[in-house]
Design brief:
It contains 4 helices and no strands. By secondary structure, the protein is mainly alpha-helical. It has a single domain, classed as Homeodomain-like (Arc Repressor Mutant, subunit A), CATH 1.10.10.60. The relative contact order is 0.20. The model has no long low-confidence stretch (mean pLDDT about 95). Pfam families: HTH_18. This is HTH araC/xylS-type domain-containing protein.
Length: about 55
């Protein structure tokens, strides 16, 4: 699981990844599953992570 979450983090940090598509491509059941696991592992949601790393 942690490898998939690290892969999701890499894709999201690239700035052009869609969270729902990333979730499915990495084998999560849906976006919600990725979001819950991502928040438990990293302490923030994928959306929050993207906002923090977008430079806005």
């Amino acid at each position: 699981m942690s490898q998939r979450l690290e892969q999701a983090k890499l894709r999201l940090s690239a700035g052009n990844a869609n969270i729902a598509i990333t979730a499915l491509e990495l084998g999560f059941n849906d976006q919600s599953h990725l979001t819950r696991a991502f928040k438990a592992h990293f302490g923030l949601t994928p959306g929050q992570f993207v906002k923090q790393h977008s430079g806005d």
